[in-house]
Amino acid sequence: xxxxxxxxxxxxxxxxxxxxxxxxxxxxxxxxxxxxxxxxxxxxxxxxxxxxxxxxxxxxxxxxxxxxxxxxxxxxxxxxxxxxxxxxxxxxxxxxxxxxxxxxxxxxxxxxxxxxxxxxxxxxxxxxxxxxxxxxxxxxxxxxxxxxxxxxxxxxxxxxxxxxxxxxxxxxxxxxxxxxxxxxxxxxxxxxxxxxxxxxxxxxxxxxxxxxxxxxxxxxxxxxxxxxxxxxxxxxxxxxxxxxxxxxxxxxxxxxxxxxxxxxxxxxxxxxxxxxxxxxxxxxxxxxxxxxxxxxxxxxxxxxxxxxxxxxxxxxxxx
Length: 319
Description:
8 strands, alpha/beta, 14 helices, 2 domains, 15% strand, 319 residues, 8-stranded mixed β-sheet, 2-enoyl-CoA Hydratase, Chain A, domain 1, globular, single chain
């Protein structure tokens, strides 16, 4: 288990419990189970207390935890007959974006998501979930395919933001993000999005301009990272905690603002401590959101989706 900074007291208690059990394994004559169980109870109570009132910055750390389930994990667990589709038919394949055809509850769907990777090799291969222009153009191609064959689209968002490299900018990164967002607004099929970790900047909006947007309890969704915001406003990236507070990037704040529609509860200790339960909860949320949309006319889906985001702007101006 990888422990976050604010989980250090928990790491010490769980470490002591494991040490006792290791001693008992080495020396069967020792009876330490009562002491170990007492430490387990203490750790469980501390874990609940820690996650009961996380600060926005702590939620950022949880959302970025490397052991959280990623896009690939959700696809493998929730969908069957997965058929990945690659390339943007223009420049290249982008491994940071997974996309393809699948079945969800026996119904055909198109699934698109950011994939960060699970170890050093795959993280480099996936570019840490930061898509290049070809990734967004691949997503547009798949959305157009879904529109043509009347297939619902499910997106799984988990990215620090779009890749800011020189090559990406030369190939039209901003234009690709804008057109992908526009494509989300145009397709006449149900479109549901789930923020499963980080929802960073326009790179996330390009996948999350949906009829229904759900967000995991400890995920984040913001126009800029706290570090980037702090660098711009205070000229000091170390003020990221203050920036996280000001950005109102938590699921709880965003639901109040009307930016997302539902919060998917995570197990105590975050998705990284209950991967299967989290994936199952996301599956139930997707099922509910799709049921609300399937059967509606294409023009109704497009109109309602556009109005949803226009209303956000109106509320912001009124505030």
